[in-house]
Design brief:
Helices cover 40% and strands 15% of the residues. The protein is of the alpha/beta class. β6 (172-176), α7 and β7 form a beta-alpha-beta unit. This is Ornithine carbamoyltransferase.
């Protein structure tokens, strides 16, 4: 029976750790090509740097052939129904990776695909990012019930997936965001009874934190709100003053791209506390493991 990766919520804690362990094995055996002869379609309605590169390079390293399809090449739901596109593509490739706007579009595609579908980002979720981030923390020995994980900023798609991952793994997470930018009610409903708190104070969230995570204030598609958001989120900037409230060895994370001088300062992202570049690299490694697990 085929398995998709639409949300990190779809995985059990054991499955998450299985992917982490598989990631380690693939890193040790770099020349292994378990997907040799397979083809993987990459449908990107939203442009990307890290997501496209990491999936294309990862597929190639595994021996698979990545086929990139942009908005110029494919129009999901236009001229042909999304359902029919999914059925046809399933006859040509062994997996489909989709980066688009609507979560519902990925879910509908997966329902009609006979091959595994991976959600490479929607406006609602970014599960590949969260999976990679938690692998990064696992490697650092920071994935346990005693850590305090502070997320400061917009309650966006990255925040949603981090919250769902924290709930699955039993992590103590505090999200600091302005009231009107709180995570979606559907996400909050899923995490009732967990160790996750949603507050408005960035200082309270960061105090004694082991991990401090942030993301852009203005996500793709929200550009018309830029001026408004910059004013509202200004107190949520991760700078040396705010970071001083965290533990001295606190790890700083950002999913990139970073808008330096807005949600994070140069002094912080380039500091010894920052593991941002390690995070970015691990997208490649965890997505390779995800592909192997779903196609193996």
């Amino acid at each position: 029976m085929k398995k998709d990766f639409i949300s990190i919520w779809d995985l059990t804690p054991q499955e998450i750790y299985d992917i982490f362990n598989l990631t380690e094995k693939l890193k040790e055996n770099f020349s292994s090509q378990p997907l040799k002869g397979k083809s993987i379609a990459l449908i990107f309605e939203k442009p990307s740097t890290r997501t496209r590169l990491s999936f294309e390079v990862g597929a190639y390293q595994l021996g698979a052939f990545p086929i990139f399809l942009s908005l110029k090449d494919i129009h999901l739901g236009k001229n042909e129904s999304l359902e029919d596109t999914a059925r046809v593509m399933s006859r040509y490739v062994q997996a489909v990776v989709i980066r688009t706007f609507e979560q519902e579009k990925v879910e509908r595609f997966a329902l009609n695909s006979s091959v595994p579908v991976i959600n490479a980002l929607t406006d609602f979720l970014h599960p590949c990012q969260a999976l990679s981030d938690y692998y990064t923390l696992w490697k650092k020995g920071k994935l346990n019930e005693d850590i305090k994980f502070a997320y400061v900023g917009d309650g966006n798609n990255v925040c949603h997936s981090l919250i769902l991952g924290a709930a699955k793994l039993g992590i103590q997470m505090v999200v600091a965001t302005p009231e009107e930018y709180r995570p979606h009610p559907l996400i909050l409903e899923k995490i009732k009874g967990t160790k996750i708190r949603i507050i408005t104070s960035p200082e309270e969230a960061v105090k004694d934190a082991d991990i401090v995570y942030t993301d852009v204030w203005v996500s793709m598609g929200k550009e018309e709100e830029k001026e408004k958001r910059e004013k509202i989120f200004k107190p949520y900037q991760i700078n040396t003053s705010l970071l001083s409230l965290a533990k001295k060895d606190a790890l700083v994370m950002h999913c990139l791209p970073a808008h330096r001088g807005e949600e994070i300062t140069d002094e912080v992202i380039d500091s010894k506390n920052s593991i941002v570049w390690e995070q970015a690299e691990n997208r490649l490694h965890t997505q390779k493991a995800l592909l192997v697990k779903l196609l193996g």
